[in-house]
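ligand=alpha-D-glucopyranose
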Amino acid sequence: MKKLTVLLASSEVVPFSKTGGLADISGSLPKVLKDDVKIIVLTPYYQNVDLSTYTPQVLKAVKIVMAGNNYFVDYYYFNDENVTYVFVKHPFYERENYYGYHDDDERFFLFSYSILTYLKRAKIKADLLHLNDWQTAITPFLLKTHYRSDPLFKDLKTLLSIHNLQFQGSFEKDSFKYTNSAFSYDYIHFERVNFLKAGITLANKINTVSPSYQKEFQTEYYGFTLDGALKSRAQDLKGILNGIDYEVYNPETDHHIFFNYTKNSFISGKKNNKLALLKELKLPALTTLPIVGHIGRLATQKGIDLMLATLEETITKTNAFYLFLGSGEKKYEEFFLYLMHKYPQKVFTHIGFENRLAHLIYASSDLFLMPSLFEPCGLAQMISMRYGTLPIVRETGGLKDTVIPYNKYTNEGTGFSFKNYNAHEMMATIISAVNLFNNNQPVFKSLQKQALNQDYSLKKMGRDYLNLYQEIIKEE
Ligand code: GLC
């Protein structure tokens, strides 16, 4: 079979740019697909993107017209280990943040045009556009209205991956002028232009990043008003579980942690890391107490409101250390800083992102808290298990699909979970997990061993996407 040519477009790609898990997947998926697929990754050239170790070629001043105005983008492209990377350069992307500006509609309309324009200019006949989240979701509409008559685009198929349904690219109706076409309900949702709605309506297939979330996001509770649109595409929806990079996250070789360890030496390995980390963070050097870690974006999605409600009480009721790393909404940042100031012997908070500290927390913690309100997949719980750290999760989306809750009758499990979005259920679950650590080490260790034996590597994810690509191509 001929190798498929796939252009994967994403507004964030590790190691070049990142605000969330989208970046990890856009970075790792091409690497596992490159042997089977000719893959081109296209992404904005943000001002913090560092290409100094590459030697890109440049396609200069390529004209794109929107709403009667000319825009000129430069394409920086190069090959790295069999993946082609293309960076779209325009002053629009040279700002402090990636998103959150008054002209995001114009910025990401331009980015979406730049996907199709690149194929045209480089004369690449691709088989499939793999689009990710709202930032590229309007592309199937542009393809349909402006490109189909061109032989290069006649058979081009589209896949939309939804990593986050909450952010939809919803703009004033007036921004439809950037479509360069007559008004269409394909992209209108509640009287606003909605990028994601367009993608859901027009992509050949749509996937999200776990089987459970695929079911959930078709319901009103989880659907962020797009449940109807999703349900109407039920035949074309897939749930593909994310994976994590087992080379980046590997306790045997991880150079960020103090002591490397294997599945067989995790008990002493984790203990040594714990001791060294507690010392570095100037907490009491007590390895007999568990560490509860939390790393992530401080956003409503992540269930931080539950923590606001009962975490302080939980801290006072448990004999454990709590380590928090993340940034996001001010009120959440202040809460975690408050906890550290109030309980300096038990709590450590770092606001911001520090990769080394993240690895150290994964390796040194015994428990990892992730009580999300909704979670398309979630990566941190899988990383935790990879380090023998037991996740405490709410049973939602990908968390439900990846964490086996502790069963006290069979001693089966890779973590702890609770069902309802309820702060006292969360507190009870944390307390019983801490108690298990403090009172029943043999069982706790057997759970850690089970967690260490899970396989959430990228391989399976790569296979699933490849199958989906082939399924899409085969369809008429
Ligand atoms: C988003 C989702 C997260 C998912 C990630 C990668 O960040 O919130 O659940 O794991 O995208 O798909």
